[in-house]
Amino acid sequence: MTTPSFAQRFAKLADERSPFCLGLDPSRDVLARWNLPDTTQGLSDFCDRLADAAGETLAVVKPQSAFFERHGPEGLVVLQRVLQRFRAAGTLTLLDVKRGDIGSTMDAYAESLFGRGSAYDVDAATFTAYLGLGALAKTVERARAHGACAFVVVRSSNPEGVPVQNAVGGDGRTVAQAVADGLRELNEKAGPGVLPAGAVMGATLPPADRDVVERLGNALLLTPGIGSQGAGFSDLPKLFSGRERQVLPTAARSVLEAGPDVAALKKALEAHQAPSRAFREGA
Ligand SMILES: O=C(O)c1cc(=O)[nH]c(=O)n1[C@@H]1O[C@H](COP(=O)(O)O)[C@@H](O)[C@H]1O
What ipTM, to 2 d.p.? Predict the structure, then answer.
């Protein structure tokens, strides 16, 4: 039996639960706001409260590796435990770690991320293509082999990304357009519906970026920038209409600010899940 792809597993969960992807970003600020110590115990309590609030309602969780790495190796032990806890609730895990290096090094990173017995065994992770999309080809292949997805930053949610991502190359395409075309080709190579190459496309982007969305074809689209970075669910249609079923709307701080009370977190989570569902259904 072949491993179902991330795209297939996401489609099922998004229909049953919602397409919303919760960002797990235990920054120093949010730990302080929740009256938790800035220690691995604080980190662990923070994640448990969110896992309690999410129960079996969440399709995808996206821990931000940086906030675990800042606690050193013990922070990574917490991360592994948290991934396991969400996995047990049937939630897909997407590690936000934005890896990007030469091909041979990328292969070692991919080995740490994807597959049973790997260090993290996540369902998806984030990558950057500044060293060339070709350097990520084997990572995408490894993701495919394990039913995972490699989300590559195409247009980020932050304004600082513009000069790099919209720079025009010798063939007249912007860097973002070229990366989008390359991701579509990697997905075409993987066969229909497998879609191991996803794209990060900020929800904060202007309508001009629709062209980039179209170039991505059927790729899954992770859309950060909702909430604290100023975009709202009402911004999704102008960039992603017609592509609703590909979108994973994601937010961290606008949910986390409701904590530490679990009931308040549940409410904030549902306040993000409901419009995500409505968008997916084209409502
Ligand atoms: O890959 C990401 O998730 C990501 C890409 C991007 O373009 N912008 C962006 O903010 N993110 C991540 O999304 C999280 C911030 O989410 P908010 O707290 O909702 O603003 C951080 O962990 C960022 O690293």
Answer: 0.99
The reported pLDDT for the residue numbered 208 is 94
Please report, to the nearest 10 degrees, the dihedral formed by the alpha carbons of residues 169, 136, 126, 2 taken in order. 130
Q: From 136, 124, 111, select the one nearest 189 (Cα to Cα).
A: 136
Distance of alpha carbon 120 from alpha carbon 41, whole angstroms: 20
Q: 3-state DSSP call for residue 150?
A: strand
CA of 170 from ligand 1 middle (Å) equals 30
CA of 247 to the centre of ligand 1 (A): 15
Q: β-strands 92-99, 60-63: how paired?
A: parallel
Task: Say how many C-beta atoms besides its own lie within 10 A of residue 13's C-beta.
Answer: 17
> For 127, phi and psi rounded to 5 degrees?
-140, 160
Beta carbon of 25 within 6 Å of any ligand 1 atom: yes
Is 253 close to ligand 1, i.e. is its CB under 6 Å away?
A: yes
Domain covering 6-280: architecture:
Alpha-Beta Barrel (3.20)
- What are 63's strand-pairing partners? 24
Q: What letter represents residue 121's amino acid?
A: D
pLDDT tens digits for range 27-69: 999 999 999 999 999 999 999 999 999 999 999 999 999 999 9
Q: Is the CB–ligand 1 distance for residue 157 below 6 Å?
A: yes
Residue 94 CA: distances (Å) to CA of 14, 211, 252, 253: 14, 26, 13, 17
Cα(279) to centroid(ligand 1), Å: 20
Give the residue extent of every domain in the chain. Answer: 6-280
* Token representation of residue 180: 């989008």
Phi, psi dihedrals of residue 278, rounded to the nearest 5°: -60, -40
* Residues 50, 256: Cα–Cα separation, whole Å: 8
